[in-house]
Amino acid sequence: METQQPALRTEALCKSFGSLKVTRDVTFELPRGARYALIGPNGAGKTTLINLITGEMRPDSGRILLDGREVTQAPTMARVRQGLTRTFQINTLFPDLTPIEAVLLAICERDRAAGQFWRSLTSHRVAIDESFEILTRLRLAEVATRPTRTLPYGQQRLLEMALALATKPKVLLLDEPAAGVPKDESAALFSVIAALPGDIAVLFIEHDMDIVFSFASRIIVLVSGGVLLEAEPAVVRGDPRVREVYLGKVGHV
Ligand SMILES: Nc1ncnc2c1ncn2[C@@H]1O[C@H](COP(=O)(O)OP(=O)(O)OP(=O)(O)O)[C@@H](O)[C@H]1O
Description:
This protein is an alpha/beta fold. It folds into two domains: 1-83 and 171-253, P-loop containing nucleotide triphosphate hydrolases (Rossmann fold, 3-Layer(aba) Sandwich); 92-168, no CATH class. It has nine helices and ten strands. The chain has a six-stranded mixed β-sheet with strand order 6-7-8-3-9-10, sandwiched between helices. It has a four-stranded antiparallel β-sheet with strand order 2-1-4-5, with helices on one face. Strand 4 and strand 5 (69-70) form a beta hairpin. Helix 3 packs parallel to helix 5 (153-165) and helix 5 (153-165) packs parallel to helix 6 (183-194). The longest helix has 17 residues, at 121-137. The site of adenosine-5'-triphosphate has 10 residues, from helix 1.
């Protein structure tokens, strides 16, 4: 039976490093299928918030719920098994593997973590088919057998997303997925993100406001660790506080 729970919910999350408060009472919900952007000036606490949600850091207080189940103290891998996956700002790929090898490995690792240690020949074929499906969805099928190091950087970032998809996520957290990608390729990369399956909720950090306003259905604005505003793009664009503390500075609105 479908539940009405949001895919992800945070409640009053707080985190300090010494006397520096980097996450202040952050409460928000990510509904199923969401395409939300997390924006804010440098140092606003965006990556820290992602690290708290994934379990790479523990909050000082507050709660995190995945599909209504509390995971605040759960290890990162347990959260991955419950459908929470992230990508990083930096490239984390193996340069000598091909995309099909990398995605297959990720699928085998997923199944091993789920307790499925042994595969019949038929199920290997199923895994290969699944790998090609993922690569096709991310427009990487044509380069599936080329070593990763020979791929243009934009395709390497797409391969990172393919590896994330191999975990069968319900919530996908993308930390600057287009970082380092030439501007004319980043819109193509985000159109792939927008076209991900409708049951995956996506939260992405992105600095390019043209991209944010084109691809986010809703925007969370973080300033000094706290949520200044969460609203539809048109409302964020017109909010004078956002202009003043963030957008005005970079002059994109
Ligand atoms: N492990 C840490 N120990 C101490 N301070 C940290 C740590 N991680 C982050 N900070 C500080 O916390 C604040 C928030 O950093 P964070 O990386 O979350 O911001 P951000 O919004 O992602 O920034 P950017 O847009 O530049 O990536 C910054 O002042 C940063 O220096």
